Description:
By secondary structure, this protein is mostly helical. The protein has two domains: about 25-70 and about 230-370, no CATH class; about 75-215, no CATH class. It is built from 14 helices and three strands. It has helices at about 1-5, 10-30, 35-40, 45-70, 75-95, 115-135, 145-160, 165-180, 185-210, 220-230, 240-250, 275-305, 310-335, 355-385; strands spanning about 95-100, 100-110, 115. It has a three-stranded antiparallel sheet. Strand 1 (about 95-100) and strand 2 (about 100-110) form a beta hairpin. The chain is globular.
Amino acid sequence: MNFIFRYIKGDKGIWVVVFLLSVFSILAVYSSIVTLAYKYQGGDTFFYLFKHAIILGIGLFLMIIAHNLKFKYYSRISQIALILAIPLLVLTMITGANINEASRWLVIPVINQTFQTSDLAKLALIMYLARFLSKHQDNIGSFKEAFLPVIIPVGIVCLLILPSNFSTAAMLFVTCLIIMFIGRISIKYILAVIGLGIVTLFIGLLIGKFYPDVLPRLGTWQKRIEAYQGEGSKDANYQSEQAKIAIATGGVIGKGPGGSTQRNFLPHPYSDFIYAIIIEEYGMVGGVIIIFLYLVLFYRGIRIASKSEQTFGSLLAIGLSFSLVFQALINMAVAVSLFPVTGQPLPLVSMGGTSIWFTCLAIGIILSVSRENENLGNTSKTSVAS
């Protein structure tokens, strides 16, 4: 164990959470890809398992690299990333791969891997907000100097994501409000932003109603809300019904690894509804363990933020940890029918591509802040001993 921790620094609790979630990911993905394998690979489940393991391995490698970089460098990286993310979001809207009337992906040449540009935009915007707010604490109450320069990039990024991915835009918007609140932006400005956001959304929905080409996903959103309210068609309720069956038949201890039957009926058991498969196979016990692991991640993120001596590090840790855990809770809420279907993956568990990599980068940045805290603590102890 000492040999392992010689090469990985930062909060040990987060590393343990990452390891356990990765194990759950391998087991759950392997169990849930049966239908996908028979449909596209002649029943070769090892093909998708191997691909997922490689992507997860690359993600963990990126996490190690990210946590070894001093977190102060992410201040400059955030500017470059945001400048890069906005044109990519525009390009995705215009030429992105269209799946289910949603242009969310660009295809990376050579490796032929789809890349969801909103993942880069989320990470870049959160880092940028942490940077800007930390640098303007002395005039944080100023509307012109502190609030406007913050809300403009938030509005641009969220509006560019909104047409193809409402849930991601809404989650990012809420995360930004949380960061602004912790960063001491005036509560009256935050309330004004919430009001403006509601009005903008209402206007956008009206435009989408009369001009469907502007918001082609509006019909999908409406069907999902109707299905959640029990008013939709049988087909619209299909995913939720199958997830409920998986959860109900899982019981307390579940059917055991590989024992799922609903994986054969759920459209996306390896991504959007993987939590339902986990409960079916590992029962309520497994479901509670997953929730507990994400709450531990959030708790450790708060501890890291509170121990950081720099405002940038604190906002970085709390913003990224909240974003990851918030997404996890939304995914799990959808699986148990507490929320309408959103299409959000379960971070570090669902089968995915670049989404896993950006999740690992976010955790790596949190660990970078933790690593710096440890170094400062060790320096202080050395000084006292001397």
